[in-house]
Amino acid sequence: MGAETLGRRTSIAVRNTSGLIFPLGSSKGELIPPWVSEGREVYRRGLILAMDLAVKRVFPEQKLWVEHSISLGYRCRIEGMETGMEAGVCERLDRELQKIVEEAIPIEFRKLSSGEALNLVGEHSLLPRWHMGRDVYCANVLGNSWAFAMGPTVPDTSWLTVWELRPLKGCFLLRFPGSRLWPEIVPWVESPTLTKELDLEEKHISRMKVHTVDMLNRRIREDGGRQAVMMSHFYQNRRVVQIVSRLGDEFPAKRIVMVAGPSCSGKTTFTRMLATYLRAEGFGTRMISVDNYFRNRSETPKNKDGSYDFECIGALNTELFGDHLKRLVNGETVKLPAFNFHTGIREDDVTPMTLGKDEFLLIEGIHGLNDSLTPGVDVAEKFKVYISALTTLNIDRLTRMSTSDGRLLRRIVRDSFRRGYSATDTILGWASVRRGERMNIFPFQEQADMMFNSALPYELPVLKPYLVPLLEDVEENSGAFNDADRLLRLLDCVEPINEGVVPRLSILREFIDGLLLDWSE
After folding, report:
1. CB within 8 A of 334, min separation 6: which ones?
2. Domains annotated on the chain, with CATH
3. Distance between CA atoms of 35 and 20, rounded to whole angstroms?
4. What DSSP letter does each residue of 296-317 carry, written as one string?
5. Which of 248, 314, 368, 404 is deepest in the core (most CB within 10 A)?
């Protein structure tokens, strides 16, 4: 395939199409197909272990680090790998990975008691030493490659028949099939804006020395987590200031600020922070709620199952919304609508608004980066900000903390506080939320002028006291149990942080209460 795209795109083994074993250790021996998200994760865990074994064979003095997720792949870094050697490294690893697949090496799912976990030595002992004994400590093991078990993996390496290695500067990308087109690997699409943001975050957590849960726990033991909390808070503040500075430079040409991002990324708090900073710089701000532009319930598109699809862009009266924005920017006064969620009817011409000469118009919503939301508005008049919780904390060297899991944990706590939902309710509804994000948000993220990462490396320790009782309430016969169980096992290895050290202006306060910016216009 050449140096630019190394690896194979072969047909997956026939037995894979009938399903992967899930969960391992289950008396039922349930099968789940690899083209759904759970099966995809099972496959990925096995592939990462096989890649670690390949690195140990080819570069026995080096260590593999699995970093953030991008374009259906994980960015991987080998300690000490020199720039310019990436293509050759990928070729050697690709050949070794093929050998490992042919050897059909068993992958074990090990359950260790607290005592057994504490008796581990070397690298394998780093995370288990924090294990608090709520349940067994689980690990996926391939030879001398160990990874914390966020879930099961394939039974042996012969199942790992599809992958792609792509050289990057100073590292490489391990790509795998996605769920939708299994077993195809979708063509590589560069994401320079997202990549730049992730690079900044990797540098930040390296400076803070909190790359893994073990490293974070050690910092917490030193001072209760205060340094980690303060450094993260000041770093995020600096990122907001950079966005505000850019907005000031581009005013008044760009005065419509569109803020978009997936669920529980902190859009509401971030938009309020942005408004406060802009006011401190002498600008005025106005906000419009896109929710008031919903079509009447009788006009709302429906899903295949007959339920209303409130997340699609067709659920909004984009023509009216675009017209109002265009007129506001031109200095006219418009009367904003108000949507009644109880009756499902929009009342038009309710609230008058005029945009002053020194004012920004801030708009927050899931479709903010999609220009179809604002027909008739010149793209050059909009400044787009993409916000997400891009988790860069690793559980261990081979196991990254999923960005999706990070947002799910935020949502479980928030839904309990503000909506009275159980963890079971939130977990069972998460797949639907994720489908909406893949359709309506992620395809547009590269159109952003700037990105903001709301994830904080100390979130797990702060959220832990809230999450444990909520997750423990999930019943074993519930469809949410497997997710609740794996998240509890992770939290069992995390040292808690007292929420009192979290600043009142922190985005995390949106999910645990106590937010100073809890105001509205």
Report:
1. 324, 327, 328, 352, 353, 354
2. 6-190 (3.30.980.10), 202-512 (3.40.50.300)
3. 10
4. PGGG--B-TTS-B--SSGGGB-
5. 368
CA-angle at 339, arms to 337 and 344, nearest 5°:
140
Are residues 285 and 337 in contact, defined by beta-carbon separation less than 8 angstroms? Answer: no
Token readout for 54 is 């390949």
For the record, the structure tokens of 360 come out as 């920004």
Separation of alpha carbons 31 and 63, rounded Å: 34
Q: Whole-model pTM?
A: 0.89
Structure tokens at 192: 């320079």
222 CB contacts (<8 Å, ≥6 apart)? none
| Other CB atoms within 10 Å distance of the CB of residue 364 | 23
Tell me the CA distances in angstroms from 94 to 46, 130, 171, 177, one per residue in order.
Answer: 15, 35, 14, 16
224-241 pLDDT, tens digit per residue, is 999 999 999 999 999 999
C-beta of residue 80 within 8 angstroms of C-beta of residue 62: yes
Question: How does strand 64-69 pair with strand 73-78?
Answer: antiparallel
| Residues in CB range of 288: below 8 A, 6 or more apart | 324, 325, 336, 353, 361, 362, 363
> What is the rounded distance in angstroms from the CA atom of residue 248 to the CA atom of residue 250?
5
Phi, psi of 188 (to 5 degrees): -70, 130
Q: How far apart are the first and last CA of the chain?
A: 57
- Are the CB atoms for 466 and 253 separated by under 8 Å? no
Q: Is the pLDDT of residue 4 over 70?
A: no
Residue 216 to residue 211: CA distance in whole angstroms: 7
Cis amide prior to 183 (ω within 30 degrees): yes
Largest CA distance in the chain: 72
Is residue 251's pLDDT more than 90?
yes
Q: State the Cα–Cα distance between residues 370 and 361, nearest whole angstrom.
A: 17
Q: Which residues contact 407 (CB under 8 A, 6 or more apart)?
A: 262, 263, 264, 265, 389
